[in-house]
Amino acid sequence: MSIKAHVLIIGGGIAGTSIARELSKYEVDVLLVEKEADVGWGQTKVSYAIRHPGARWSPGTLARELIVKSNLIFDRLVEELDIDFKRCGELILAFNPDELECLKVMKSRGEQIQVQGLEIIEGSEIQRLEPLVSSGAIAALHMPTAGIFNPFDLIHAFYENAGENGVRMWTDTEVLGIVPEKGQFIVETNREEIEAAFIINAAGLYAQKIAQMAGTDNFKIKYPTKASCFILDRAVGDRVGTIVTGLADLNAFHRFKAVIPTYGGNLLLYSPIPEPSHGIDDRAVEKRSFQMTCESLRSLVPDLDFEGHLIASFSGLTARNDRGDFIIEASEKQDRFIHVALPPPGITCSPAIGKRVTKILKKNGLVLKERADFNPHRKRIRSARNASTEEMVRWVKKDVRYGRIVCRCEEVTEGEIVEAVGRGASTLDGVKFRTRAGMGRCQGNFCTPPITDLLAKEMRCPVERITKKGKGSNLLIDKRYH
After folding, report:
1. What is the model's pTM?
2. Angle ∠(445,446,450) on CA atoms, nearest 5
């Protein structure tokens, strides 16, 4: 027997979850399916999580249009969903006259869309804002409205709020086939067959494959190269407080190298080095990527010790398409099949993506009546590291588990981990991305065993069933008693 839904969303990345949250405002049955064990483990997981003001993107592109619309919404959304966000500003450095001309073009583009506070500064003013910035920079475009998200908190906020408002969420659910039939779609998965009146294809790297299943493909997803990011210890996290970027391509301003302060207090290093991709699942980090990234970024902040403070790295593919812009549209062959294929910056554009998709659904026949009981609010997981003494006293009085530190590096308590499991974490990575447990200098060497035990206890299963990131990543094979 088939499971039925008015709208099926395929893909639990930033696009799919933001659309789910937007649709949860209406009296419509929505089901989201994600092939991984948790949401946000595709492109979102490898994002550098900047909220862009929009000055980098060309006029006339859908990406710029959605950046503008999203930035008008985001402040309210940050408040409603209690999202981790910091407006730290951005400095785009120029080292020669040609790059200075690029800054002038970007400033003009930003002013066209009413980005506030744009200013080209020089010399001592650059050093005043960021003392470690290279003295070789002749100018910088200061964009004070730029900011940084915790990308995992953002996607979990959409996911949790959509679920609270009635959207069904299935993880570990892979779509195997789609058959258009009598005004609807029959979708085969590894779990259940699903009948859906509308499908939203937000499958990221797999969007072309999903479109081909339904016979609606009119674009190509390209991933010839992968991007790698490197995380520095919090010991140097306060050395750079502003997003510091440099131009990597004078003909494509959205390609840049960067030293980025993260919401968690680390520094993230990124440079668009064209590492060849060896397939859609290639996540390997090449040694030379780090060496080349360090060499590239020394032009921005020459006196920062990158090598001595590296604690983690990650690599991933970006689903760029053959049109070079966002694709958010109904299929020409099946107007109830909506394509959402996003290159960066999907995180910045996420609020407007849901609204655009909703308009397309309405236009193509989905009746959307606003719910009187929609709850727009969600609270983040409590954090002992960021709590006051008074807050900790109150929490521990109610639940002693908030007084037991499990992850010493990040000061994560047992109470936070239990809360994360209650919100959907079923793996070590699920706990990590919700609480930061395991993200510190030791990278989980000390806290992995107790977190594994807590997961097993809360999920009421043997510890052998606990995984790092879902199927095929078990930590223990079996128990051996001596």
Report:
1. 0.95
2. 120
Q: 376: how many CB neighbours lie within 10 A of its CB?
A: 15
Spatial CB neighbours of 22, under 8 Å, sequence gap ≥ 6:
354, 355, 357, 358
> Which residues have C-beta within 8 Å of that of residue 441, sequence separation ≥ 6?
233, 234, 235, 311, 409
Residue 98: name the closest of 247, 244, 245 by CA. Answer: 247
Domain at 1-87+148-223+319-380: CATH architecture: 3-Layer(bba) Sandwich (3.50)
Q: Which residue has the tokens 């506070």?
A: 117
What the block records as the tokens of 63 is 């990406």
d(CA 50, CA 348): 7
Q: Which two tokens stand for residue 178?
A: 């789609």
Q: Are 119 and 138 in contact (CB under 8 A)?
A: no
* Nearest C-alpha neighbor of 200 from the set 45, 317, 86, 361: 361
Token pair for 71:
């930035």
Element (H, E) at 73: helix 62-81
Cα–Cα distance for residue pair 101/166, rounded to 1 Å: 51
Q: Where are the beta strands (DSSP E) in 248-402?
A: 256-261, 267-270, 275-276, 310-317, 320-321, 327-330, 337-341
Report yes or no: 133 and 127 within 8 Å, Cβ to Cβ: yes
Each residue's pLDDT tens digit, 287-332: 889 999 999 999 999 999 999 999 999 888 888 899 999 999 999 9
* Catalytic residue IDs: 52
Show the DSSP H helices in 130-281 as ranges.
151-164, 207-213
Structure confidence by residue, pLDDT tens digits, 47-62: 888 999 999 999 999 9
Q: Which tokens is 179 given?
A: 């058959």
* Residue 152 CB coordination number (10 Å): 27
What residue segments make up the domains of the chain, in order of their start? 1-87+148-223+319-380, 90-144+224-317, 389-465
Taking the C-alpha atoms of residue 256 and residue 234, their distance in angstroms, rounded to an integer, is 23
pLDDT band at 107 (very low <50, low <70, confident <90, very high): very high
User: In this structure, what are the phi and psi dihedrals at residue 62, rounded to the nearest 5 degrees?
Assistant: -65, -35
Q: Which whole-number Å values give the CA distances from 414 to 97, 150, 405, 447, 457, in the listed order?
A: 55, 21, 6, 11, 12
Beta strands in 300-435 (DSSP E): 310-317, 320-321, 327-330, 337-341, 405-407, 412-413
Query: Does domain 389-465 sit in CATH 1.10.287.1080?
Result: no
Residues 273 and 140: their CA atoms lie apart, in Å, by: 23
Alpha carbons 475 and 465: distance in angstroms, whole number: 8
For 90-144+224-317, CATH number out of 3.40.30.10, 3.60.20.10, 3.10.580.10, 3.30.9.10 equals 3.30.9.10
Task: Count CA atoms within 13 Å of residue 356 on its CB side.
Answer: 22
In DSSP terms, 404 is beta-bridged to: none
